[in-house]
């Protein structure tokens, strides 16, 4: 092996200008390779960061979707009316004149007499904002005895 190297050295005589040009060419090639490798590494880092951001956004979206699904399932399980409540709701929105007259007889609030010892809010109909605020305050202070008395006086209820 050394023989060949010696032979090559003897065959090729380098001058200063060709040697200088070769050294600069190699340095330039090394510089370009180093720049290219850094450029490719930056692109790879950018790609990985972008992928991580995309995955985190997708995961957050899935979590939001799961929370929304769980919320609606909770509503369906806890706030779906029973069959008797469904009938009541459908009767409220049903336009039957006989049913309206029947409701009038059951809900004749003018015939209810309130004793003088009653200390709760005295409401007049149609309700005003002041009357509603009094009613809300009564509920806040748990003075709802008026509702129990009203239910006793409604005909057909016990």
From TrEMBL:
Its cofactor is Mn(2+). GO terms for molecular function: Hsp90 protein binding; metal ion binding. InterPro entries: IQ_motif_EF-hand-BS (IPR000048), PPP_phosphatase (IPR051134). The keyword Metal-binding applies. One of its GO terms (biological process) is negative regulation of MAPK cascade. Keywords: Manganese, Metal-binding. Pfam families: IQ. Coiled coil: none annotated. It comes from the Eukaryota. The keyword Ribosomal protein does not apply. This is Protein phosphatase with EF-hand domain 2.
């Amino acid at each position: 092996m050394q023989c060949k190297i010696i032979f090559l050295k003897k065959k090729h005589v380098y001058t200063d200008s060709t040697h200088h040009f070769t050294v600069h060419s190699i340095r330039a090639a090394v510089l370009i390779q180093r720049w290219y490798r850094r450029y490719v590494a930056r692109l790879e880092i950018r790609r990985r960061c972008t992928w991580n951001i995309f995955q985190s956004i997708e995961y957050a979206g899935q979590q939001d979707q799961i929370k929304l699904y769980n919320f609606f399932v909770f509503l369906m399980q806890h706030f779906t009316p029973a069959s008797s409540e469904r009938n009541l709701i459908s009767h409220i929105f049903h336009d039957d004149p006989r049913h309206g007259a029947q409701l009038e007889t059951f809900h004749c609030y003018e015939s209810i007499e309130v004793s003088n010892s009653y200390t709760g809010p005295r409401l007049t109909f149609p309700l005003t904002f002041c009357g509603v605020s009094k009613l809300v305050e009564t509920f806040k202070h748990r003075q709802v005895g008026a509702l129990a008395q009203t239910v006793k006086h409604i005909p057909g209820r016990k």
